[in-house]
């Protein structure tokens, strides 16, 4: 069975976006390097440092499914039906879209994080699942569903915004020592959740 990995680019003070969902300098590292890396979409290259490219090329191909919330789905228009990474996207929402112009895209709309993780695990088999940072990450962490955390730390303090763990108010969660990869304008911190 693959791992469930909570992942996002995060500011030094723990935000994945500002209050208007802007990412500002958080994503600068996606375009500041000499090495081209692709997720699922061949029309969406990333230009990153060699260290970041090595990390992305090691982790991204293992991801089969992504779990996102309705907010990210709406902001990106579901990346026009092409998953950013992996081959399937599970969107957690109480109201699936009725007029989305990509009905045959590999997107499944589900009601709740537990259902999303269960369906993603069935789909993914022994490959990994990525949960986008924000309220979903907090919900998954509180439910004990997260195996690893990929915290891509950008050198910026946003001051306010949308938190990586959303409104998490659950029990304390211990993490193993991180694997640390220093990129250009990003530090990749990859943790395993300590299992008792």
Automatic annotation (TrEMBL):
Xref: InterPro entries: DHFR-like_dom_sf, RibDG_C
Bacterial bifunctional deaminase-reductase C-terminal domain ranges (all copies): 4-169
Entry-linked SUPFAM superfamilies: Dihydrofolate reductase-like
Pfam families found in the cross-reference section: RibD_C
Record's protein name: Dihydrofolate reductase family protein
Origin species: Kribbella yunnanensis
């Amino acid at each position: 069975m693959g791992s469930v990995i909570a992942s996002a680019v995060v500011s030094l003070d723990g935000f994945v976006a500002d209050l208007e969902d802007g990412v500002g300098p958080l994503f600068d590292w996606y375009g500041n390097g000499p090495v081209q890396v692709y997720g699922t979409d061949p029309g969406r290259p990333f230009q990153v440092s060699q260290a970041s490219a090595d990390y992305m090329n090691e982790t991204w191909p293992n991801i089969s499914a992504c779990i996102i919330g309705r907010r990210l789905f709406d902001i990106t228009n579901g990346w026009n039906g092409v998953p950013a990474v992996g081959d399937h996207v599970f969107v957690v929402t109480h109201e699936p879209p009725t007029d989305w112009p990509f009905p045959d895209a590999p997107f499944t709309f589900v009601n709740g994080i537990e259902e999303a993780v269960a369906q993603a695990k069935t789909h993914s088999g022994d490959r990994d699942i990525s949960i986008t940072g924000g309220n979903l990450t907090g919900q998954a962490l509180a439910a004990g569903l997260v195996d690893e955390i990929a915290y891509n730390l950008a050198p910026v303090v946003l001051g306010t915004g949308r938190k990586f763990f959303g409104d998490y108010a659950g029990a304390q969660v211990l993490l193993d020592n991180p694997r640390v990869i220093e990129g250009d304008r990003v530090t990749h911190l990859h943790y395993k959740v300590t299992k008792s």
